[in-house]
Amino acid sequence: MFVPQTGITLWLFILGALVVGGGVFFVLTLVPTRFRKPLIAAVTFLAGLFFALEFFLPVATEGETKGQNFLTPFLKPVSAWTTILQGFALGIGVYSLVSVHLRNIARKREGRGFSVVLLAAIVAMAVPAIWKEYNPDPRLKGFYEIIYDGAFNSLNATMYSVVAFYIVSAAYRAFRIRSREATLILISAFLIMLGQVTIGQAITNGIPNEGFARNFRIENIANWILTRVNSPAVLAIEFGVGIGALATSLRIWLSLERGSYFDEEL
Predict the structure, then answer these.
(1) What are phi and psi of 111, to 5 degrees?
(2) Confidence band for 246, pLDDT divided at 50, 70 and 90
(3) Which residues neighbour 204 within 8 Å (Cβ) at sequence distance 6 or greater?
(4) Whole-angstrom Cα distance, residue 40 to residue 265?
(5) Is residue 181 part of a domain?
(6) If you ran DSSP here, which 8-state letter would residue 147 be given?
(7) d(CA 174, CA 94)
(8) Which helix (H) or strand (E) holds 192?
(9) CA–CA separation, 253 and 45 (whole Å)
(10) Residue 212 within a domain
(11) Within a domain: residue 231?
């Protein structure tokens, strides 16, 4: 795909892409209601069929096309559509978010102050982030770093630091000793938390960190629980979730899925 890199040509290319994309969306809105669901099902099926065939079809074992089949050269252009659709989805999401909060401000609803802060934060983060990509001025880059690294990351770390206390409180209420399983979970969580902080590690700091005795240091106990007990369980859960996601994706691909969204008329 040809994408110009410099000057006014780039902006004309972007403008043309937006016009074409907007035109496509406008045409899609003109599709009669009864044809929208079959159209979505057909496009979804054809897109999934391309990637499935490209993956499963035999590939050449020699020559210039070694490791490829006749669909492989089209893989990158077709995959680029995923990025394009994500861009449009992001744009629609931002538009929806901004429109909702602008209505909150215009109608003077309760909590409109938060809407003002949100919109101001979007502008303060988005404008420098986009502008610095096309303007090499180091002052602009420094301004963005101040906003992102100095403000956003610091506020993010502060929020998670505060949330950590609520997590501990919630864990205590959730893991209240009522059964053997709850007792085991509570003890494991307590050992892992102690193993992650300096004050907890200091409890067993007198035990030598070598030989068989090292197994009784609190940080080694926490690490054993995480790597030998927790990790296999998490992998098993992720494997099951992956199988479920694959089955659901296959049902959506074949337009077999049913539910509140799929059953209603679009």
Answers:
(1) 85, 15
(2) confident
(3) 216, 217, 218, 219
(4) 12
(5) yes
(6) I
(7) 37
(8) helix 180-196
(9) 5
(10) yes
(11) yes
Average pLDDT over residues 150-176: 78
Q: Is residue 22 helix, strand or coil?
A: helix
Tell me if the pTM is above 0.70: no
Q: One-letter amino acid identity for 123?
A: V
Cα–Cα distance for residue pair 186/177, rounded to 1 Å? 8
Q: What is the pLDDT of residues 213-241, one digit of tens each?
A: 888 899 999 999 999 888 898 999 999 99
225 touches 191 (CB < 8 A): yes
In this prediction, residue 177 carries a pLDDT of 62
Q: Are 69 and 59 in contact (CB under 8 A)?
A: yes
Report how far residue 171's alpha carbon sits from residue 176's, in angstroms, rounded to the nearest whole number.
8
Number of domains in the chain: 1
Structure tokens at 230: 């927790």
Amino acid identity for residue 38 in this structure: P
Rounded to whole angstroms, the Cα distance separating 127 from 134 reads 11
Taking alpha carbons only, the member of 99, 98, 87 closest to residue 21 is 87
- 104, 109, 111, 112: CA torsion to nearest 10: 40
Query: What does the alpha-carbon distance between residue 146 and residue 131 come to, in Å, rounded to a whole number?
Result: 15
Residue 4 near residue 233 (C-beta atoms within 8 A): no
- Which secondary-structure segment (H or E) carries 51? helix 33-56
2-54 residue pLDDT tens: 555 555 677 787 788 788 878 887 888 888 888 888 888 888 888 888 888 88
Domain membership of residue 221 as a residue range: 175-253
- Whole-angstrom distance, CA of residue 250 vs CA of residue 257: 9
| Tokens standing for residue 166 | 């609520």
pLDDT of residue 266: 45
With respect to residue 183, please indicate whether it lies within any of the assigned structural domains: yes
